[in-house]
Design a protein that fits this description.
This protein is α/β, with parallel strands linked by helices. It contains ten helices and 17 strands. An eight-stranded mixed β-sheet has the order 7-8-9-10-12-14-15-16. Strands 6-5-4-3-2-1-17 form a seven-stranded mixed β-sheet, covered by helices on one side. It has a two-stranded parallel sheet with strand order 11-13. Helix 1 crosses helix 2 and helix 2 packs parallel to helix 3. It is globular and about 55 Å long. The termini are close together.
């Protein structure tokens, strides 16, 4: 049994991975923790798992932006014990935060988490390329980043260069399929995101944080080469990077991997990009997007989009708010 719970963390990310190991014990991994505003909900998720007689084995923070580490920060600030679980997070301690940038690194908050968890004697570790996490029946392989890439990000002040996202909803999905991808993410904190593959019971899932597309592709190519798999490699589900931003995908995707199901955490305001959805349809044919918020029910798609793609079942939109996707 493998379940993925997407939670509505507003503009942030929070996912729960739940599976049964070969000894019959239920295991849980929390990937990112939303914003601090989501903190109470994050603690409730954590405590509900414990009340069910299960444990949170790993809390994995893909990168140190506030919309990913806020819930864990809330938890440690309120001195809620983590007990026996492991916290996986990349952050060189006691570095100053960059003074500018399109998305400020939350280094002081990350340092605060590290300091308080150290006081609690919590088991902490980094998540770097080559690291693995294993139980009976499940294997997690960290594909990205390297230690040098993390250190370069935390020691660099990124220029204040906004992504220049335009409102692409005025165009139809059909029109956007043929439009070139015109911008790329330049956020260095996003680039420091952990990318990992979870393998369980012949299933293979890709989790991308907010990573840059080029780094995702390079990581997947290396993963496939090491395992002797031909490209494009198949994934049963892919968590879309950066809340579905078109700045974090590229035309190389279908050459490297194939998937029909995508997990998307977004609030429906600045994200997701409609261009991203159009490109997935163009590359992969029929696709399903699973999200913890029904952002598509607020005028996101035109009547033409609905008739051409949703009613025809080429695009399936599935609401999963705190309930699992199962395999």
């Amino acid at each position: 049994m493998l379940e993925i719970y997407p939670y509505d963390a507003g503009r942030g990310d929070c996912l729960r991975i739940r599976f049964c190991d070969e000894k019959g014990a239920y295991r849980n991994i929390l990937v990112d923790s939303g914003t601090r505003r989501f903190g109470r909900s994050y603690v409730s998720i954590f405590q509900d798992i414990q009340r069910a007689g299960e444990s949170v084995d790993i809390q994995l923070i893909t990168h140190t932006d506030e919309d990913h580490l806020g819930g864990l920060l809330y938890m440690v600030n309120h001195e809620i014990p983590i007990q026996d679980g492991v916290v996986v997070m990349n952050c060189p301690q006691n570095l100053p935060a960059p003074s500018s940038g399109d998305t400020p690194l939350s280094v002081p908050q990350a340092n605060q988490i590290i300091s308080r968890l150290g006081t609690q004697k919590t088991n902490m570790r980094s998540g770097l390329r080559g690291d693995t996490l294993d139980w009976d029946g499940v294997h997690i392989q960290i594909l990205y980043p390297t230690r040098g890439q993390v250190e370069a990000v935390f020691n660099t002040v990124s220029p204040n260069t906004p992504l220049g996202i335009r409102d692409d909803r005025i165009l139809s999905l059909e029109q956007l399929m043929e439009q070139p991808l015109s911008y790329r993410d330049t956020s260095l904190s996003n680039r420091a995101s952990i990318v990992f593959v979870l393998e369980y019971a012949r299933r293979r899932l890709l989790f991308t944080g907010d990573s840059w597309s080029a780094d995702i592709l390079e990581s997947v190519c290396t993963y496939a080469k090491v395992r002797g798999k031909e490209l494009p490699i198949h994934f049963d589900a892919v968590k879309l990077p950066h809340h579905g931003s078109a700045g974090n995908i590229s035309e190389e995707w279908p050459k490297v991997f194939h998937a029909q199901k995508y997990i998307l955490c977004a609030d429906g305001r600045s994200h997701p990009s409609k261009h991203t959805i159009a490109k997935l349809l163009n590359w992969y044919g029929d696709v399903e997007i699973v999200s913890p918020r029904d952002w598509w029910n607020s005028g996101y798609f035109s009547d033409k989009d609905i008739a051409q793609f949703i009613e025809s079942k080429r695009l399936q939109l599935t609401l999963k708010k705190g309930v699992p996707m199962s395999w």
